[in-house]
Design goal:
Blueprint lengths: L17 H7 L8 H12 L2 H4 L1 H32 L3 E4 L3 E4 L3 H9 L1 H42 L10 H14 L9 H29 L14 H18 L3 H8 L8 H31 L17 H37 L4 H4 L2 E3 L7 E3 L1 H20 L3 H29 L6 H33 L1
Antiparallel strand pairs: 1-2, 3-4
Helix pairs in contact: 2-8, 2-10, 2-11, 2-12, 4-9, 4-10, 4-11, 4-15, 5-6, 5-15, 6-7, 6-12, 6-14, 6-15, 7-12, 7-14, 8-11, 8-12, 9-15, 9-16, 15-16
Length: 466
């Protein structure tokens, strides 16, 4: 496009030691477009898809689908920008790799930006773990409620606590958290991605069947009615936050790209995987969101498969919720592994001679390959899972928590830092055409995030007080 360029200082790119580059060569990368797409789908289609019917309901028949398409487009743009930041100084040939989001920020933007992005990333990862724990507990409880309604009738008082099921989910995650890193998670991501297709298809099918059975499409252009305009504004802001939570995967994109084999260049493979994954997720999002709202109208539940708009066939609802739990077992790990990897790398650099940090002990397990146990990993990851489980039990507000997390992390992690790194990577000159358009894009997304964040905070406070 004839863009202007100029020399930019790259704060840490030239400070990377050659032995670090050599150490990268010892890592065997075998990822493909398909495995990367599976990782993305595992991370993206999670708690978010279950709230989309409610979100479309709040926004109405015009605003809801347009919001889904808007965030799909935004995710497509930012994932392409970020994929080019995996290698430096050349986005295709490197030779320096940035194996994590924060490594890329540090190399391109410096230490101050690293600290700021680290705060948003780790908070976002931690929040996703809380959201997935809430959703899994709700889905496990829904299986028991579904069976109760089938036995006792739809008017029966089938009340069960979420907390017991959240504790079970947390216990399983403690075991899964001992997986060393993303390179050992392909099997988990593929199985989780299959589960996401199953329950998304069931949700879509149940909504479609109800619309056909009722013989009409419910809902309106203005969306679900509320007692006052102020409450309607808050609900709209929460719905936008829920959709924002459902799409971006920027905080795990570079970790996924680090699993890809080359040639072809990793950024090209990652862009293809992103397009494929976003197309698939958007299709399912539109089907689940729109048909869910069409089926229930103003009575659309906050969680499509656990809010008990559907009672029968109970066994199909059970299968869907079991698939949700299996999927979120994988999604929890996809979002926590970057946090775990950060602690591993930071601790090794800070305490290279500490045996608690660096020593591995080989444990032989029956019917399984030998496992190399590290006590730091065992202790930190166990405490991490226990903490997220405890907070999920204390704040079990599904739609409000998703909206808050989506609004909190959307602009800084999915928009601002990828755009700024892209400027440095591609040496984009200030006030050039591309620079101007990307800045407008960033500011517009910031305003959306602020609006959604305020409404989601209001929603959590209101739920806690009530």
């Amino acid at each position: 496009m004839g863009e202007e360029t100029q020399a930019f200082d790259q704060p840490l790119l030239l400070k990377v030691e050659s032995d670090n580059i050599q150490s990268e060569e010892n890592i065997r990368r075998t990822g493909t477009v398909w495995s990367a797409s599976a990782h993305i789908i595992t991370g993206v289609i999670g708690s978010g898809v279950l709230s989309l019917a409610w979100s479309v309901g709040q926004l109405g028949w015009i605003g809801g689908p347009l919001a889904l398409l808007f965030f799909a487009g935004v995710t497509m743009i930012q994932s392409g920008l970020l994929a080019d930041c995996y290698k430096s100084p050349d986005s295709e040939f490197g030779p320096i790799r940035h194996r994590s989001y924060m490594e890329a920020v540090r190399a391109n933007l410096g230490e101050k930006s690293l600290c700021l992005s680290g705060f948003f990333q780790q908070t976002g990862l931690f929040g996703c773990a809380i959201a997935y724990t809430i959703t899994s507990g709700t889905s496990m409880r829904a299986v028991q409620k579904s069976n109760c309604y089938h036995r006792e009738g739809h008017e029966a008082l089938c009340k069960y606590e979420d907390s017991d099921y959240m504790l079970i989910f947390g216990a399983i995650q403690i075991v899964l958290s001992l997986i060393p890193d993303f390179h050992g998670m392909t099997w988990l991501s593929i199985s989780a991605a299959v589960m996401s297709f199953v329950y998304s298809s069931i949700g879509f099918g149940l909504g479609l069947a109800k619309v056909i059975g009722d013989g009409r499409i419910k809902g309106s252009i203005g969306g679900i009615t509320m007692p006052s305009p102020t409450q309607k504004v808050w609900r709209i802001s929460q719905a936008i936050g829920d959709i924002a939570f459902a799409y971006p995967y920027s905080i795990i994109l570079l970790e996924i790209e680090d699993t890809l084999k080359s040639p072809p260049p990793e950024n090209q493979t990652m862009k293809k995987a992103s397009k494929l994954a976003i197309f698939i997720t958007t299709f399912f999002y539109l089907c689940c969101g729109c048909f869910g709202y069409a089926a229930f109208g103003d009575a659309t539940p906050g969680n499509l498969l656990t809010g008990f708009g559907f009672y029968e066939p109970y066994w199909l609802i059970d299968i869907a919720n079991i698939c949700i739990v299996i999927h979120l077992l994988g999604s929890f790990q996809v979002y926590c592994q970057p946090a775990f990897s950060f602690v591993d790398r930071w601790s090794t650099e800070k305490f290279p001679n500490n045996s608690f940090v660096t020593k591995f002990r080989t444990i032989k397990l029956p019917f399984l390959p030998p496992y190399r146990l590290n006590f730091l990993r065992l202790c930190f990851r166990t405490i991490y899972v226990i903490t997220t489980t405890g907070l999920a039990i204390y704040f079990p507000y599904f739609n409000q928590v998703l909206g808050l997390l989506g609004a909190f992390g959307f602009w800084p992690m999915a928009i601002y830092f990828p755009v700024e790194m892209y400027f440095v990577q591609r040496k984009i000159v200030p006030w050039s055409k591309r620079w101007t358009w990307l800045q407008i894009f960033s500011i517009a997304c910031l305003l959306v995030s602020i609006f959604s964040f305020i409404g989601s905070v209001e929603g959590i406070i209101s739920e806690k007080i009530s």
